[in-house]
Design brief:
Elements: H1 2-11, H2 22-32, H3 46-56, H4 61-94
Helix pairs in contact: 3-4
Bound molecules: zinc ion.
């Protein structure tokens, strides 16, 4: 983020003498703003959560392999649906309002 700040200063012709040093930028960011970083969360559905728990609790290698197989099939189907949605959105943009895309999270 500090590098982006420096880039922005450069683009706006702010002299180096007026740019905040990294320690000051960090201090202001940490103390004056209620902002923080966190790892990205993966959005999972109930099926993903169920299969993840099932995989952890498998009693045998065969059961685990079957669970992994179900998980792969489930994720492949999810990717297929995302690709269909992406293609539909692209098509709707190309046809400029003659078609719309409606998605529902169930
Ligand atoms: Zn899922």
């Amino acid at each position: 983020m500090y590098m982006l700040y420096l880039t922005n200063c450069s683009e706006n012709d702010i002299p180096k003498s007026k740019q905040a040093k990294e320690w000051l930028y960090r201090k202001i960011f940490n103390e004056d703003f209620n902002l923080s970083f966190h790892p990205l969360y993966n959005d999972t559905c109930d099926d993903c959560d169920h299969l993840m728990i099932q995989e952890k609790d498998c009693g045998s290698v065969e059961e685990r392999d079957e669970t992994i197989k179900q998980k792969v099939i489930h994720l492949d189907e999810a990717n297929l649906r995302y690709n269909i949605k992406r293609d539909d959105k692209k098509l709707a943009k190309e046809r400029l309002g003659k078609e719309n895309v409606l998605t529902v999270d169930m």
